[in-house]
Amino acid sequence: MIDRTKIEQILSVIGERLRRPSVIVIVGSTASMLSGQEDRQTPDIDIWFPMSDFDATDMKQAVEAAGLRYDPRGEIGAQDLYLQILRPGITMYPLEFETVRLGAYGNLTVKMPPPALMVATKLARATETDLEDVAWWMKNAGIDRGDVEAAIQLIPQRRYREEATANLIFVDLGKGGANGA
Question: Could you tell me if 16 and 8 are in contact, meaning their C-beta atoms sit under 8 angstroms apart?
Answer without folding.
Answer: no
